[in-house]
Amino acid sequence: MMNKKSSHVQASGFNQALVPLHEPRFRCMHCAYVAHSGFNLRNHIRKHTGERPFHCPVCSKSFSQKGNSLRHMTMHFAQSKEECPVCKVKYRKEKELMKHLNMHSSALNSM
Ligand SMILES: [Zn+2]
Ligand SMILES: [Zn+2]
Ligand SMILES: [Zn+2]
Fold first, then answer.
1. Going from the N-terminus, what domains does the chain have, and what CATH number goes with each?
2. Which of 2, 19, 82, 95 is most buried, judging by how many CB atoms fall within 10 Å of its CB?
3. Which ligand is in closest contact with the Cα of 85?
């Protein structure tokens, strides 16, 4: 232990050394899951609580994950042919419509 390197990373504990700046404060209280952000943790905790805050604005089906609700909404989109199933705005590019659907979805979760 004579080696006085300026490195702040400890050689021991390989896994801990990888995340010296971020302590696992987004740890799930129900299991060992550690999220990268508070948003991810909230998403994850819904798996335990069964909470489904994302509702399809078309058919009012509810989802625990935003990704799932978006995927579901693209199903409506496929049926309505390049038109937003909620407000009937037309989009030529699927990417743009996805962005638009995302807006519908996030508006429900803005609280
Ligand atoms: Zn968990
Ligand atoms: Zn729906
Ligand atoms: Zn719309």
1. 26-105 (3.30.160.60)
2. 82
3. 3
